Amino acid sequence: MPAPLSTAPLPEEPLNSRSRFLAACRCLPVDRAPVWLMRQAGRALPEYRALKEKHPFIELVRTPELAAEVTLQPIRRFDFDAAVLFSDILVVPEAMGQPYHFRENGGGIEMEFAVKSAEDIRRLDARNAIERLQYVAEALALIKPALGGRTALLGFAGSPWT
Q1: Which residue, 21, 37, 63, 160, shows the most beta carbons closer than 10 Å to its own?
Q2: Helices and strands, number each (H, E), in the chain
Q3: How far is CA 53 from CA 79, 142, 155, in A?
């Protein structure tokens, strides 16, 4: 068993997945290191691949029920300590008016325009981004009850123009 993150004694009552993850985030002692799976690694799951055959990636991200399903698949299969919201860092620039798509030939993503100048920055508009990203909030509303307070839920962030 790995050493606890602090020298304080372990809690009296057993930790569930969520409390284990949150305690570790606070550098409190835990019975074991928490485990979770980023959605990229979830691409290996047969249930994800089955959905991917029927729905393009962007549809999986933008459809709350599908995003919730993909988020929950690793939890159902492995009972991890934390679920990772199925999304993409590109939803933020898209919500600001910088659409993207996946290249059919050659793979990868392509932004409608690159941000290379002050003029490109002026093309972006964050005023209605919250409304445009409502599908993320709707997915969260489906995921949290399904986790039942037993499993932590993580979002992720990155620079939109990495």
Answers
A1: 21
A2: 9, 4
A3: 25, 23, 25
